[in-house]
């Protein structure tokens, strides 16, 4: 992992919706909470601009974050982020403590590669339908990947990529697959071009009908009379 993320925080003593609204309006800061591990949850305050800047990087959501809480440092991952439904504003953030020796479950973004070289697209004229954009994985914090690559080069029309087809880094497992084969979700599929399949079938049917008619007409007298 090449990115590093640190956020300066302070302990928040005022609780409740009114206090949170005042925090956002007067201080340009947001409320947050840190929980997990063997410690009690801690209510935090984080500068809104710092949080917005951090979340502009996709890796922030699948990375170990250092929270500088006054004079202490806590390692955490972000578990939930509440945004304003209409404005570019973050309302609240949830962080979970992590331990170097304990596995964590984190949703990691998928990066699809070689889409333009995909056999089903390049030769078959198909299109790629992405059915997942992230995979929830379990691993130790040191093994947490920023993203997971899915190579689409060899995928043909009608073929799909499932979780079991995705190569995960060493020490990383799929949370869904850990619950059994029934959870082997589709990640992407190469669809036939719109109308391409039906048009091809109609053309084959028409050709077959013409061949059959031609065979039946052979040997008939000219004019089709019965004599």
The gross shape turns out to be elongated
What is the total tally of β strands?
Answer: 13
Name the structural class: alpha+beta
Q: What is the H-and-E element order?
A: EHEEHEEEEHEEEEEEH
* Oligomeric description of these chains: single chain
Structural notes for this entry:
The protein has a six-stranded mixed β-barrel with strand order 1-3-2-6-5-4. 20% of the residues lie in helices and 35% in strands. It has 227 residues and is of the alpha+beta class. The C terminus is likely disordered.
Which features does this protein show?
4-stranded mixed sheet, alpha+beta, 6-stranded mixed β-barrel, 20% helix, 227 residues, 13 strands, single chain
Set down the secondary structure blueprint.
Layout: E1 5-11, H1 17-27, E2 29-35, E3 42-47, H2 48-55, E4 65-69, E5 72-83, E6 90-97, E7 104-113, H3 119-122, E8 127-130, E9 134-139, E10 148-151, E11 160-162, E12 173-174, E13 186-191, H4 196-217
Parallel strand pairs: 1-4, 2-6, 7-10
Antiparallel strand pairs: 1-3, 2-3, 4-5, 5-6, 7-9, 8-13, 9-12, 11-13
């Amino acid at each position: 992992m090449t990115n590093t993320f640190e956020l300066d925080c302070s302990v928040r003593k005022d609780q409740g919706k009114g206090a949170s609204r005042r925090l956002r309006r007067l201080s340009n800061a947001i409320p947050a909470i840190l929980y997990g591990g063997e410690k009690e949850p801690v209510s935090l305050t984080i500068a809104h601009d710092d949080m917005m800047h951090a979340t502009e990087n996709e890796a922030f959501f699948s990375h170990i974050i250092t929270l500088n809480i006054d004079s202490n440092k806590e390692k955490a991952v972000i578990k939930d982020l509440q945004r304003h439904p209409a404005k570019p504003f973050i309302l609240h953030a949830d962080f979970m403590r992590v331990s170097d020796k304990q596995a964590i479950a984190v949703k990691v973004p998928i990066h699809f590669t070689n889409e333009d070289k995909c056999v089903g697209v390049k030769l078959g004229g198909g299109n790629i339908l992405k059915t997942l954009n992230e995979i929830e994985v379990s691993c130790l914090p040191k093994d947490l990947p920023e993203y997971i690559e899915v190579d689409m080069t060899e995928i043909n029309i009608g073929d799909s990529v499932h979780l079991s087809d995705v190569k995960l880094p060493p020490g990383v497992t799929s949370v869904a697959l850990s619950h059994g084969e029934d959870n082997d979700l589709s990640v992407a599929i190469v669809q036939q071009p719109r109308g391409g399949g039906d048009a091809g079938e109609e053309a084959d049917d028409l050709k077959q009908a013409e061949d059959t008619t031609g065979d039946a007409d052979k040997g008939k007298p000219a004019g089709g009379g019965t004599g």
